[in-house]
Amino acid sequence: MTTPLDDQRNYRLPPVCILGLGLIGGSIMRDLAARGERVYGYNRSRSGAYAANKEGFDASTDLSATLDRAAGDEALIIIAVPMSAVESILDNIAARAPHCGITDVVSVKKPVYDLVRSRGLAPRYVGGHPMSGTENSGWNASHVGLFERAAWAVAYDWAAERTDAGEPVDPSWTTLFAQVCTLAALSGAEAVPVTVHHHDEAVARVSHLPHVIAESLAIVGDHGGTLAQSLAAGSFKGATRVAGTDPELVRNMCETNAEALVPVLDEFISLLGSARTALAGDTPTVKALSEAGNRAFVRMTARSGARRESVSPVRISSRPVMRVHPGAPGWVGQLKQIEDLGGRVEVF
Amino acid sequence: MTTPLDDQRNYRLPPVCILGLGLIGGSIMRDLAARGERVYGYNRSRSGAYAANKEGFDASTDLSATLDRAAGDEALIIIAVPMSAVESILDNIAARAPHCGITDVVSVKKPVYDLVRSRGLAPRYVGGHPMSGTENSGWNASHVGLFERAAWAVAYDWAAERTDAGEPVDPSWTTLFAQVCTLAALSGAEAVPVTVHHHDEAVARVSHLPHVIAESLAIVGDHGGTLAQSLAAGSFKGATRVAGTDPELVRNMCETNAEALVPVLDEFISLLGSARTALAGDTPTVKALSEAGNRAFVRMTARSGARRESVSPVRISSRPVMRVHPGAPGWVGQLKQIEDLGGRVEVF
């Protein structure tokens, strides 16, 4: 029996150069190294690079030297820095390694794509976003298996734009797309094709709004003083966990995706306003909200992420799968179909 | 070395009669039985009682017979039904077992206390609320250890009212208070003294608001369709988990605590409104929110619940503790001090 990964051995990766060895970049480095891939990286902070080297990884604090090396061995470059540092990193890549394939793991996709395009790097870029993280950050929080069964959004806008314009997709881009899907698979994740616009709208709902909520709820709980702190249990802890995230990272996510986040926040505030009205009436009720919320929860749970079969120890993905040969006739149309389903793509 | 439980052996429990063998009542039955206490109960649904009996527990579907038995052996009665059924249960207790000590595990305390008082049962009542639960319900979801290290709010209003009025506290009430603290300890929980008003305000913040948020966020996520469902990860799942709760139970919690919940909901909506304004400006920012939210999170985490020491496998409570001898001079004043600290009480 072949696994998705066996099929993808056609696309074993070139050397991988990770720029930024924090929680995400560091975890990718560990996963790739564990799979026997060639991987090295750059980290701005000396302490992170030192810790990585001490564990036997290949990390440098010299960005220029790292990019020269990437250019020399035609590495796949992964941008794993916060959004606020992407512009400067792209300038360095454009100057020193413009022919390398580029992907990224930033939590918004359109702002990155705009920066990429404005530098003429779009033909060598396939955006990515692994939907996995914790409230911790930095190399010391990174670990093998962080992305196991997670969705890894892979943006196919470049191919869609060419196809919509009746133009061919450059084979080097097609190969890069397959490599990024393989990168996701090697990290244990499931590649979910997205366009940057759809991605940013979806993550505003399921990631950035939850962060805004967590911060706000932490404040409301804290206003309750020590008694509220003492009585806080699972529902509070679950909803506020990501308020433990470094505020700078939250700013990077939410501020750069403000365009998509504001209307989603309005939708949420409007629901709460209705709940408030129904609760403040003569006969307080949350009937409509709790029933609609529970139905929505059941749908989200049934369809999102991986589930564990009751008997088998193997976790089964609940995402529909489509096997796609990048560059084959109609392949971009297939990606659009998968995106509509929130499905995963396996390249062969 | 003596443990808190050893000290509380002075207050070994009478037989315990649990009315309602769902997640909470069923888990208490299991914990008490595992400790060798005498425990039996009533459950409205035949399937729940049947399942309990099949596992060797002593469960009946006959409320009258169960209350007659409780009256006969002077049991401690635990009301473990949803708020909507409390009134009818209290009427039955008043009719058949009015001399038994009564406690409850309902998630609001003032509405229960009002019903208790209107039936003249207050001298035989000490309200309780174990701060532990899951999104599942019913006997089959119950399990040993559900309350391990959880806060178990224990209401001392009756004693405070007597003391404030310069009247003595009936020794039978004092004994009952100690028994309820012992019940919490036997279940692995930590007794946190509360007044019903402070309790309801605090749980509006840390439990009922999170439920309203979970329902609303589930709906907003679901509006994102299958792609949002596919991309939903930890932050979304953590914040929406309790939307899996039976909507009837959510209604029972939130509707009966509407008086405390509405102002807390207003506070939350106001914070989101400020966040929305800051995000919709020319330079979108969540700086103020993310920094205040993170500080609040750190405070809540530092002070709430139990933590695991880095070396020791033993979980250490982070709640300050005060040892109190119920009925001793100044003991009600001590309870007020502990409540202000969100601390736990150990009776001796």
UniProtKB/TrEMBL annotation, chains A, B:
GO BP, one annotated term: tyrosine biosynthetic process
Annotated SUPFAM superfamilies: 6-phosphogluconate dehydrogenase C-terminal domain-like, NAD(P)-binding Rossmann-fold domains
Tagged with keyword Lyase: no
Example of a GO MF term: prephenate dehydrogenase (NADP+) activity
Keyword GTP-binding included in the entry's annotation: no
Tree of life domain: Bacteria
Pfam families: PDH_C, PDH_N
Keywords: Oxidoreductase
Family classification: Belongs to the prephenate/arogenate dehydrogenase family.
Protein name listed in UniProt: Prephenate dehydrogenase
Origin species: Corynebacterium liangguodongii
